[in-house]
Amino acid sequence: MSSTRECAYCGSKENLTKEHVIPDCINKRNPDQEISYFSRKNKIFGSDLTIKDVCEKCNNDYLSTLDQYICDLHDKYFSSYVETDEQIIFKYDYDLLLRSLLKILYNSSRVNKTRFKSLQKLKKYILHGENRPTHIKLYLKLITPYKLKFGELIKAPPEFKKTGKLPPEFTRVTTLSADIEKIDMPTVAFNSYYFMLAIPQKNITAQEQKEAISNLENLTDSPKQLLSKSDSLKTKGSSWDIAKVFKAQGLNSMKALLEYNARN
Ligand SMILES: [Zn+2]
Fold first, then answer.
1. pLDDT by residue (tens digit) across 158-200?
2. Beta pairing partners, 235
3. What integer pLDDT is reported at residue 33 of this predicted model?
4. pTM of this prediction?
5. Residue 30 or 1, more confident
6. What span, in angstroms and rounded, lies between the C-alpha atoms of 115 and 111?
């Protein structure tokens, strides 16, 4: 039987393999944490999303390098939660990092049917690092654990009662945006590490772009920009804890999270 499916990167119809939206090595490092938050239903589900549209060659020859890179970063950085004002020196390879994040977003776009066309244009950059998209700006914001209030502490699952804190233990794709008409801000979060990509929408002027970016920086309490000409960033844990992130997104997530943990 012939398949109409083709590789999302090279178009081949041969040997299509299963691709994890979030790299499998990240999921394996966080076995209790295969969590996706669906804002429409205001619920958290345990899930490990996959999509079967990447050929064996693209997967093994090119994309596996990106998975390895992001998992190395996980072991070095993402596996520890960052506290407010804690100093971090984050070392990175700009292209490997941006390509890894764009791959996760492109995977997510094919599952969720959002941003597909704009990300599809970047498939050669994701695959081979050709033609870096200079219109995209990349930021890092370090989200800190939330200190549970008395009433919440009583209802909290045992593992949170011990520390009195709700850790930012999410690997997820989300969106923070001040002005979606002018700028899209998809975010890939690995525990404390929130990588925010500012992608200007088509047809906005340089001035409008500047204003939209500055609004975003204010809205999100000045995340630090990761520059392509650099390979390290000195920053610190922000004043934003995980509860504030959810609140900024208008999500009643604390309730959903506590319910999720009570069930599992
Ligand atoms: Zn392919």
1. 777 888 888 888 788 887 765 667 788 888 999 999 999 988 8
2. 88
3. 61
4. 0.88
5. 30
6. 11
State in Å: Cα 196 to ligand 1 middle.
Answer: 27
What's the whole-number mean pLDDT along residues 59-78? 96
**DSSP reduced 3-state for 102:** helix
**Strand spans (E) along 71-209:** 87-91, 137-142, 146-147, 165-166, 171-175, 183-184, 186-190, 193-200
Residues at Cβ < 5 Å from ligand 1 ion? 7, 9-10, 12, 55, 58
Asked if 223 contacts 194 with a C-beta cutoff of 8 angstroms, the reply is: yes
* Residue 157, φ and ψ in degrees, nearest 5: -65, 155
Environment class of 18 (CB within 10 Å of its CB; exposed 0-12, middle 13-18, buried 19+): exposed
183: CB partners within 8 A, 6+ apart: 177, 198, 199, 200, 201, 204, 209, 212, 213, 216
35 C-alpha to ligand 1 centroid (Å):
28
Distance from Cα 125 to the centre of ligand 1, integer Å: 14
